[in-house]
Amino acid sequence: MKVNFIRKPTPEEMLPSDEFIIMKEIIMDEVSFSKFINNPLDDHDFIDKNSDLMYYDFKQNITKCILLKCTNKDYGFLINSEGSSYGRYVAYIPLALITKDLYFPNTEKYQKGELK
Hints:
about 120 residues; alpha+beta; five-stranded mixed β-sheet; globular
């Protein structure tokens, strides 16, 4: 297992604190996925085409993002481009933590406003 160690961390850096909702799931082949990992600040078509889905919702205090997955990896990335075509805000996430009933907007909990 690998982790990222943070040098001289602040409490905010040590514990996840951003609430999110996944607006769309994108599954890529390994070559495309690696291209994103190696060049996250480059413009990417898949981000550009979905930029309207990624933003911080101040009314709900939640980040609306896309989930980028690879066909043969057990992790993915949450991406909030804030209208850009590159990964302005990116978070690594193990796919085992993603459950459709909690993080996708078409779920009953989201529609009832229980995810805040």
